Amino acid sequence: MRTIVITGGTDGMGAALARHFLSAGDRVVVIGRSRAKFDALLTTVTGDDRSAKQRAEFIAADLSSVADSRRVVEHLRAHHERIDALVLAASFIRQRRHTTAEGHEASWALFFLSKYLFVTGLAPLLRAAERPVIVNTAVPGARAGAIDFDDLEMREGFTFTRSNAQQRRANELLGLLATGENPGLAYVTWGPARLVRSSFAGDVGKGMKIAAAVLGRLLGQRPDAAVGPIIDIVGAPAPGRAAYRGAKKLTLTVGDHDDRDAARLAAAVGDE
Question: Which keywords appear in this protein's UniProt record, sorted alphabetically (predicted)?
Fold first, then answer.
């Protein structure tokens, strides 16, 4: 039986993946903020409902909190011998800069620091799996120079576009660190082929909310349809780094100093 860990597993694509893997007979650990949503998710699982409930675990956490991310990693290491697949899908969109109680820029904390802590902290459990895979829903393709190493938390000149590009590029470099430590690991940065209908959790302006709602209804794909390529990747992982939009494999972005940049990034956040 595989062990699948999904952050952001109570909504949208994360919930669709949790339903699929539970129905397929896997052990699934869902990390999210709402126990009520997790309980509701379990009622939609097909197959042996009693068995699914026994194979499902919920860990409540706000992954924009470094302390919460560390707590979840420690819990997983204490209660599981291996992780076959780690899906990093937690999301909360912010158009404006927001500082957490710990003093971090919230989007950077959620979309990179938490992922860094999961990938590095759970490395021993992933190494224990026969065919380990990480699927990071950081849409690939950000330019190589998107990271401002002198101001990672964008205390100056914050924009949604800059913040988004920096997080995405940092997660691509995280793949270099992860596969360097574990050559047998498959590390995939992935984004949907097109808009996905979801509850669109976030702190955004009215214009973005309306656009997301309207376009989602008109053009969006259902979460259970959108995650098909992720299910395929988890089912047949290929060691090394890769990038996908939907089922289409993309060329990885290559910079002149990727290894140096990855090491610089690790040094900058390693004490978190």
Answer: Oxidoreductase
